[in-house]
Amino acid sequence: MFKITAIAPTRVDLAGGTIDLWPIHNLLERKATVNVAVSLEATVEVTPSSDGLFHFESVDQNLSDRGTYDSMIRSPKLNLFSLLLSAFWSKNLPAIKIKTHAKSPAGAGLGGSSCLSVAFARAVAEARQKFEPSYKVPDEFGIVRTAQDVESRVIHAPTGVQDYWGGIRGGINIIEFPFGRTEITTLPGSSWEDQDFKLICCYSGKSRASAINNWEIFKRIFDGDKGLLEKIAAIGHEAADCAEAVSQQNWKDTIKASQREWRLRTDLWPNIETIETRKIDAAAKAEGAIFTRVCGAGGGGVMGIFCPIDRTEQVSKAMTAAGGQVMDVVVGGPGLTVNII
Question: Which residues lie below 8 Å from residue 311, measured CB to CB, with a gap of 6+?
């Protein structure tokens, strides 16, 4: 008997979202994607099954399913789980029970499904090794590649990589895209402690699917929209500046570059902001916030708010009064953790 628990954080994107979609970044000279982990984690528990059937339970979705291996890998009820099981398990192995819980609201723009995928993949792979000692648990790049392929099948659209790396690495991530590979530099979240600013997460109460915006951009770029490509290149330039500032641990310039990138992003996608997020933005800035940005590419969902530490309480109260839900999170915490008992 064993229990394997894998926990992965979500992330707030600071700059360069959408650029992490292959092969968009290959079209750009300067580019990077920058994000920071937040403790709205996904947790996956795997235990042996006692009845010979596979069991899925999603606590946050209030959904469950059970059946044989063949039925579960084809079940549409929790199709992300089904496809991940087919990728990381074998029909010849004993049945297992998989229980998940995601703290991030659905559609929050924090990469919740991706961090759930890497936690799911790692937990199931560790369980497989318990039954099949010769099986080698994939390294972090193998987990990312497989999870990305699975999610593309689920959403029927290209997926970027930044969400997976935020979940695996935690901390603050600089993701770069030289030809032929992806390079990830991770700084510990403690790197920006004791600064004079704070990053607050606030849920606006409404969300949209980021894959919709990303897919529209993807199609237009590869249909030859040169004007759009120029705008994406400008976003890439600011994201590269943000990455450089992070690497130097120059947090004032990090915020400035993120803010410049955000202005370009809102010009490109006006609907990334909603009535709710604009109201929260105005309330936060009236109390001294430096700037706010909506997480992900979809609009709505969770916002990241940069504010002076000595204005944290006032800004939080103002956003709550404006209809937002200030979230209790640790910023820049650990990445994917696994506990086996």
Answer: 287, 288, 289
Rounded CA-CA distance 218/265 in Å is 15
The amino acid present at 318, given as its one-letter code, is A
Q: pLDDT tens, 291-300?
A: 999 998 766 6
- Considering the entire predicted model, what is its pTM? 0.94
Residues 121-153: tens digit of each pLDDT: 999 999 999 999 999 999 999 999 999 999 999
Is 151 part of any domain? yes
CATH number at residue 8: 3.30.230.10
In a domain, 251, yes or no: no
> Which residues lie below 8 Å from residue 260, measured CB to CB, with a gap of 6+?
238, 241
Q: Provide the number of structural domains found in the chain.
A: 1
Q: In DSSP terms, which residues pair with 293 in a beta bridge?
A: 304
* Residue 337, burial from CB neighbour count under 10 angstroms (0-12, 13-18, 19+): middle
195 is a domain residue: no
Domain coverage including residue 166: 4-180+334-340
CA angle 247, 121, 183 (to 5 degrees): 25
The mean pLDDT of 302-324, rounded to a whole number, is 95
In a domain, 10, yes or no: yes
Q: Dump the DSSP string for 292-320.
A: EEESSSSSEEEEEEEEEGGGHHHHHHHHH
Reduce the DSSP state of residue 130 to 3 states and report it.
helix
The pLDDT of residue 154 is above 80 = yes
90 phi, psi to nearest 5 deg: -130, 140
- Return the C-alpha torsion angle 228, 234, 236, 242, nearest 10: -150
First to last CA, the chain: 9
- C-alpha 159: how far from chain center: 11
Whole-angstrom Cα distance, residue 240 to residue 211?
23
